[in-house]
Each structure stands twice: as structure tokens, then as C-alpha cells.
Amino acid sequence: MKEKYKNNFIYKVTNKDTLKSYIGKHSGNLEPLDDIGVVYFTSSYDTEFRNDFINNTGNYTIDILGNYDSSKKALELEVKLHEELDIAKNPLYYNKAKQTSASFDITGMNHSEETRALIGSYHQGKTLSTQHRKILSEANFGAGNPMWGKERPQYVKDAIGKAHSKPMTEEQKLKISKTMSSKKGVETSMYGKTHSKLTKTIMSKNNKGNNNPNYGKHWYNNGKINKPSKDHPGNGWVLGMLRIV
To answer: 72's torsion region: left (phi>0), alpha (psi -120 to 50) or beta?
Structure first.
């Protein structure tokens, strides 16, 4: 059966300021970069994001993660990416629904403010018991994990790599650095947690000598950000780390 459209592509739209993204699929006869952000502005349920993308397109970067002559193959990639990134629940993405092979899974769809308030009041002050956490952990371990025993096709690996390979600007790095350095105590992801002895051994082995990404490097700063480098970065950079507050 002949395909209706020439291009069936997966795209990623990213806000330059927040680094929040949207991944979707679109089919058409225009070349992808002549289509998305020009005549097509995603099918996102997030109207605030979509309207901003329409009115301030220049504030977003657009990446084409894959373009296929088959709508079915493009859909397969979209489904795998959405599953891989748990996209409907991932705070780094605007997507509110996860694409499945037949339709959208709206598991991650946002509730109304009223519903959120009701759910919040019900759960306020409650914490998961150790037993409950153990059950959840065991349910997603080994064969219980949705990715257990599955091998990702190479084109999916390539698309995932491309989605995460775009380098950040110095300004974006500074924003993230300030956000992370301001977190203390319970705000940090490792608060109250300790690595197992096995994990510590593996981490130590993987970060020794040439395996350490900072091996042979010194820390420099330019008064705004810190940067590890084997060679002096140039004018404006001095040796030593800057404490960012």
C-alpha cells in the first residue's frame, strides 16, 4: 500500500530557557524543518506551551529525531521513545499523554486544579510505609520491569542518543548549576539514602584513573561558572572553583 505522505517524522521541540521539551510525530509532504514550527505547531494538549510555541517560535529549538517513508515505522519509534522516557509523567517534557500503538495513553494527563486540591488534601502528611515501598520496588524489578528482556532496535537507540546529545549553552549550564547548588537537605535526591557496598565498589572502579571523566583535568572559573579542563580555557578564566550561590 502506497504511503499517503512522503515524510513521516519524529520531532523534538525544546524551550531554550527552561530546556523543557515536547516529542511528537507528524506526517506531511513538506520537508520536516519546513513544516514543524512553520505550518504545524505540534498536537500538544498543553495549550499554554502550544500557544507560546506558535507566538514565540524563535524561543524554541527544533530537532528531527527520525524521518521515515512509513507512518507505521515512525509511530513505532514514537511509542518506544514515549515509553523509554515515561514521557507523560516526566517533568522535563510538555507531553501530557503517552503514545501507544493505537492511541494516546492519558495516564499522565493533568488533573484540574480542583481535583489536584482534593487529591493533595487526601495525601497530605502521608508517607509510604517501608513495606509499601518494598512492594513497589519488587514489582518493578527484573521480569516485572516493562523493559525486561527487551532489546531496543538500533534506530531507537540512535534516536534516544540524539535526543540527549545536544550540548547545553554556558547560560543553560549556569541555570542548572544554580538550581542544583541551592538544594539542601530533603530537597536533594539522595537525602536519607546510602549506596550499597556493591554500588560503592562499582562506582569506585568505574571512576578510577582514565575512567574518571575529570582525569588529568583542573578546575577553572570565569567568575560565573566552573569548568574542568586539561588545558587553560583562555582569557577570563582562573584556576580554582567558584562557589555558586
So the answer is: alpha
Instruction: Answer yes or no: do 209 and 156 share one domain.
Output: no
- How many whole angstroms separate alpha carbon 70 and alpha carbon 78? 13
Q: What is the pLDDT of residues 125-149, one digit of tens each?
A: 656 667 667 766 766 666 666 666 7
Q: How many domains does the structure of the chain reveal?
A: 2
Is 224 inside a domain boundary?
A: yes
Render pLDDT for 21-60 as a digit per residue (tens, 0 to 9). 999 999 999 999 999 999 999 988 888 999 999 999 999 9
Do residues 157 and 207 share a domain?
A: no
